Amino acid sequence: MLDKIEIAILIPCHNEAISIAKVVEEFKAALPNATVYVYDNNSSDNTIQQALTAHAEVRTEAQQGKGHVVRRMFRDIDADFYLMVDGDDTYDASLAPDMITLAMSGPYDLVNCIRRETEETAYRSGHRLGNRLLTGVVRLIFGNRIIDMLSGYKVFSKRFVKSFPALATGFDIETELTVHALELSMPTAHVEGAYRGRPEGSESKLRTYRDGWRILMLINKLLRHERPMIFFGILGALLTVMAILLFWPVLITYLNTGLVPRLPTAILAMGLIVLSALSLLTGLILDTVTRGRRELRMLTYLQYPSPPFKLDRTALLNTVSNRPALHAKPDAKKLNTQPLIPIELLRQIWRFGLVGVVGYIVNAGCVEILAPEIGPLQAQGFAFPLAASVTWWCNRRFTFGASHRTVHQEWLRYLLANALGWTANNGVYVWMIFSLPLAYQHPALAVAAGSLAGMVFNFSVSRRLVFNKSALP
After folding, report:
1. Tens digit of each residue's pLDDT (9 = 90 or more) over 427-465
2. Residue among 295, 185, 168, 181 at smallest CA distance from 219
3. Are residues 159 and 32 in the same domain?
4. At what angle do helices 407-435 and 125-142 cross, to 10 degrees?
5. Domain end: 226, 261, 282, which one?
6. Full-prediction pTM beyond 0.70?
């Protein structure tokens, strides 16, 4: 089957004379009918001569950076499948046929190789930590269907390559490739393969801190471009929280004395609220623009046919045998006796409320202990994350159960949900105080409404986004 499709093996290179010939020969042996393209990126050694000796198709790209090379490769080459691999001889070429076969069996637009270290020198500690951190950030923001984002061993379909607007210039191209697949909900798959150290005399071009910083900046840019509502919504929420903290003492003084002695502070708080509203409005507008851009990319993606498909009958039969009957008729008696609110949901609600009481006790106790020493605002700054961490652990153990995310991802999401819930609580309180005369006369009503709004918000976000078990590991 593999001899009936056109496969292009793409190898971006910069000063890989030590290893490039071996890489070309191994991949030619693994995929005899594929064409191997070596794209030299201003090498100062004899990389080109070594690649030509191994009978590779050699081309050059004058603009320095892996992103420029990938953009040039994707523009120039036409094939059914594209296998991209680094030229440093760190990946297992024998895995290539399996990756192409897997891409055809889906069919999948992206097959990514998850690196399994076989030598102690394969990874530098900074690279390992950076890879986990950056992959975790992308999974948290854009979806958790990708593992080992920075792997340099991938298979792409033609419609992936020809719909990919390559804009990155350096090693951040790996992030852009991942986000492109996630944003268009492309079918993706993973294989696990050996990852060995570079041959002696070969040096990595990746700089841990410089390229890590560039990737973080790209993630920030992609968040702003692809998730503008989240980006500007968080910015607006932070501005609102700052405005409330500044305005609260002014409001208390006004309610007690009818005077506003700190007028500059009041003006600053009002300015922050205006900026928060502008941020939210910007997010709404850009969200509409982003939707249009995503639809255009999807239409470009759909212009190309799906990858050649090879039916894996054994895998299909196993899938069907484990799948429940799709056309089974529901039991009418069960439908009639089902409660309006599921029992499981009711159980989660009351346990969430009970955990909230525990969190309040922790929060209030810390504030009472620390306030005489460091002041109430600073005390709350210490108490809030502590109380949120306690309630996160309790909800993880007793209310919802652990999600498939890593512990630190789940904890960060829960802290963000609680911060936004606190903003919703105070927002409802302030709105009721200034909008309803009855609430102004009886602030306890506003407190109750704000607390209810914050609890509903926290419960919904925690249930759907923090402890959701449908996510992939």
Report:
1. 877 777 777 777 677 666 766 677 777 778 778 877 777
2. 168
3. yes
4. 40
5. 226
6. no
